[in-house]
Amino acid sequence: MKRSLLLCVSLFFFSIVVRGQRSPLYKDAKASVESRVSDLIGRMTLEEKVGQLSVLLGWEMYEKQGDKVSVSDVYRKAQADQHTGMLWATLRADPWTKKTLKTGLNPFLAAKATNALQKYAVEKTRLGIPLLLAEECPHGHMAIGTTVFPTSIGQSSTWNPELIKRMAEVIASEARLQGAHIGYGPVLDLAREPRWSRVEETYGEDPVLNGAMGEAMVQGFQGSDLKSGKNVVATLKHFAVYGVPEGGHNGGSVTVGERELHQAYLPPFKRAVKAGALSVMTAYNSVDGIPCSSNPVLLKDILRADWGFNGFVVSDLGSISGLVNNHQVAATAADAASLAINAGLDADLSGYGYGSALADAVKKGKVSQAVLDTALARVLRIKFEMGLFENPYVDPAKAAREVGKAANVEMARKVAQESLILLKNENNLLPLKKDVKSIAVIGPNADNIYNQLGDYTAPQSDQAIVTVLKGIRARVGKTVSVRYVKGCAIRDTTIDEIAKAAEAARNAEVAVVVLGGSSARDFKTEYQSTGAAKVTASDVKVSDMESGEGFDRSSLDLMGRQLQLLKAVVKTGTPVVLVLIKGRPLNINWAASNVPAILDAWYPGQEGGNAIADVLFGDYNPAGRLPVSVPKSVGQLPVYYNQKKPTPHDYVEVDSKPLYCFGYGLSYSSFGYSGLSIEKSGSNNSLAVRVRCRIRNSSSKDGDEVVQLYLRDHVSSVVTPLKQLKRFKRVHLKAGEQKDLSFDLNTEDFMLLNSEMKWVTEPGEFTVMIGASSEDIRLQRVLEL
């Protein structure tokens, strides 16, 4: 009896205690983010802490059976053994992941999948910490059913940051609706080495243009409220100096001076950080012998101390273990983990760079609890700021309704239109005459879906992509005869329809020849469980892929039989329009001398065919400008416009100038420049310089002009560039219209790093130049400071 009474009393008081218990502070939405972060860290084990810093491959974490999707055994094990807090590429689909249109997830199922993963993390783990889901988002969310925009090199060819900001808003919204929280991008590497495989992912060769585009992407991705349900965290790539590897070898070593590092390669990242970017990815390469994934000067001194970055740093895939295997600066996995995290690298993209190796490093005293907790806090802070502890789920029906909607597709067409660069238009061959009756559409990129989209692209339904052939046929309808002949492949020389293509051109009024390159991975191949391809007799022997991550080149020549095809078509005497679809500058010297019209499209995205047809027939007046110089020969490299003084001299075989310079591009309109004036106020430490000019559309066609402002420092204490872009504006002018433009410069625009590595504005003369390209300077005046 006493025992029963005692039990009842105990249960009574226990129930009072339970009813009176407060939930953990980290679950209190009214508490401050910092107090919640601190409370949660205080409750975590070493293994749970390490798990939050390990980003596992996400596409293995769900199972799909028809219209049902659930968490996989792989995910359950990852939570039980590794306590994972982040996943990458959960919704990615491509040959590597072996996710196809059939085995991958449409937007509705993608949202259901991420909800299932979150529900398990919240309800089935000890602390209930929601996941952070990162996705590839450089030119659209790399998932099935999303909108595919032009690749970054095409985006920067618009010279329109405001448009790119609106594009980024669309990309972020489509990713967030499906449950993603982080978008990998923008890529801010300078593309001064066109042999390098990833030029298409960059914004070109110039720090000012790259910085403007990077800032626009960050603002579009992140918005002003991460709890909005339509914004994602931007991850800046690749920190730093990744785009100029020796020999063009992807991930190869880089040797640049400290002054060049700060004046050219770091400014785009700094501008994006100042715009609020909350994540940065380290690069695979080393800089002057120090791997970027273990470089405390980059990650601590510059990124955090100098720039005030308060987000988290993540490795590129496998780059922490690369300290052992590739760079060989660490002997063991634990040594690599300690080098990375002690240098300021917070999270591991791979799951095996940190994981047990980091736990081992902590236990051995190679990494302090303070260092570990600091990295952890940076990651957890994002989860709280996004409101994931309160609402980790998304609405599948809304994802199905909003992702890839008509307005987003129209935005893709707009970006593609503005990205197109008219390189040549002899005798005004373009726009094509309205009464044209027959067109030959020729070339390996005229009707190839994946060659048009670039790297980091998910599988696509045929209906979603408009190729050049489809765009032309849709534009002219049935009133014009359109005959298509492939002619050849990009690389495979066994395909030879050149005679057939020449015949088609001979019997047409105009020939549109679509050549270039490809970053297309093989989406049609079926794969075995081991990842090996099931090859059939109908497969081509050589893929088209000659660009895209890892596909570095030793030459820039058109590959395969493409030049032979072009020469055969030109020889017929039929007027030829060359359309280039590619991921890097290519050798088009022969075309520049022999083809009357050339249109550069880079990889123009899913609406590329419509945009190209719009330009060919004059429904859109092109105004794209080159964000990178086009060399005449690899022997000229590097050939970027803002090289250091003195002026390069000519070679025995060829002059030193590029075939087409940075900032170059033609229009169906013509523009006049006049009225340059400069007003200066303030001292060298607080300068305000306003530059004014007048632009007039002197033609009968409405059009856009990209007005570019460059500076040249006459005499400086250290060597400076021949000229440097400082400001630009894309302005629309109706036929005959004129507009007054103004550009505001400040002290920073005139600064240099002096011999003592201090930023200073030196007195002296500067030439202010206004022009239509880096070589087409229309107005200039000397300004004295």
Automatic annotation (TrEMBL):
Checking Pfam families in the record gives: Fn3-like (PF14310), Glyco_hydro_3 (PF00933), Glyco_hydro_3_C (PF01915)
Which domain of life does the protein's organism represent?
Bacteria
Drop me one GO molecular function for this one: beta-glucosidase activity
Matching entries from InterPro entries are given as: Cellulose_Degrad_GH3 (IPR051915), Fn3-like (IPR026891), GH (IPR017853), Glyco_hydro_3_AS (IPR019800), Glyco_hydro_3_C (IPR002772), Glyco_hydro_3_C_sf (IPR036881), Glyco_hydro_3_N (IPR001764), Glyco_hydro_3_N_sf (IPR036962)
> Which Gene Ontology BP terms does the record give?
glucan catabolic process
Q: Does the keyword rRNA-binding apply?
A: no
Keywords of the record, alphabetical order, are: Glycosidase, Hydrolase
The entry assigns this protein to a family as follows: Belongs to the glycosyl hydrolase 3 family.
Q: Which PANTHER family match?
A: BETA-XYLOSIDASE, PERIPLASMIC BETA-GLUCOSIDASE-RELATED
Please give the name of this protein: Beta-glucosidase
User: From which organism does this entry originate?
Assistant: Pararcticibacter amylolyticus
